[in-house]
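Assess this today:

___
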Amino acid sequence: MLKYYLTHHDLTALTPIYEGLLASYVDDAAKYSSNRTMFHVLRHAIESAPLAAGTRIRFQGFGNSPYRSREMGEALRTLERAMLVYLLFPVTTHELPILPDRKRSPRLQFLDTGLMNYRAGLQRTLVGLSDLNSLYRGRVSEQLIGQELLATSNVRLSPPLFWVREKAGARAELDFVYLHKGALVPVEAKSGTAGTLRSLHQYVSASRCPIAVRLYSGPLSIDSIRTPDGVPFRLLNLPYYLAAKLGEYLDWVETISR
């Protein structure tokens, strides 16, 4: 695909490749289907998954379908075993050991950001864009970061997770928590200033984590700041394209803090 793009220098020229990939995934659904009904459920899941990437989902009626929770859950878990999607479940604690809460709605991570962009009709919009977080309500940047973290982690043993705090009258949701040397580091994908990171501040206040990460479109930097209730921490501001190197940069921050 990269060779094709380098030849044409046009994202829209990749359309035949993306169409072929989607068609092959749908064709493969027949191999995983126990009956004709399950084939249709799997086909719907494949076609709808790119459009739901980066959002928390419910199995019941997924993708505006008439399918029940049980059959759609089975279909999405089948696609997860085929490594086409990942179901990222939230954690509600900031201490080890961490156990994802599978009673809560998962966030859908799709296999490939480029295919997601194609299915959502975003390819032309991406050209010349200066901040990914300004596109598609921030879902492209979250999908891209999730893809990078999945590529650099042991998916079965330590998949990317996100944190939620849900209680009456208040809700906080942190994009990712990253396991680094026995600590859960909060990670947000944002374009705003450090003061707008409300969920990250709430996590730091509860966990007393000394470092947090913002992945964004700006330059590499480190800020020493405090949460609204006065808890000090250091914020590592990391460009999106360095998401795959997150662990190495956290090591670097530790060396300069000694």
Strands lie at 85-88, 90-91, 107-110, 161-167, 170-180, 183-189, 211-216, 221-226, 232-239. The chain has nine helices and nine strands. The mean pLDDT is 82. The first helix runs from residue 2 to 8.
